[in-house]
Amino acid sequence: MPNIMVPLDWETVDNIVVMQVKEMKDSLEGYLIQVQNNKKGTVFDLDYKKDMKQIKEHIKACELIYAYFGGNNK
């Protein structure tokens, strides 16, 4: 399959980044609820406390990136 190049302006690129980071944050929040409910680590560590800590750190990182690219953290 040939590669196709599509020129994108910076605003479009920023919007794509914001959407992807928002989706990742939402996914991590879902995992956090799952880990809290099951008391079983599944994402970063099998120890649920370590897993919850790392998930929370990644959520905060997503929030930081999201804000940088103009997202509203809602």
Tell me about this structure.
The chain has one domain. With 74 residues, it is mainly α. The protein has two helices and no strands. 11% of the residues are buried. Helix 1 runs antiparallel to helix 2.
Mean pLDDT score: 92
Envelope shape: elongated
| Total individual domains | 1
Q: What is the subunit arrangement here?
A: single chain
Structural class: mainly alpha
Total strand segments: 0
User: Termini separation (Å)?
Assistant: 39 Å
Helix content: 55-70%
Strand proportion: under 5%
Secondary-structure element string: HH
Topology:
Elements (H helix, E strand, L loop, with lengths): L9 H29 L9 H21 L6
Keywords, please?
74 residues; mainly alpha
Summarize this, please?
The chain is mainly α.
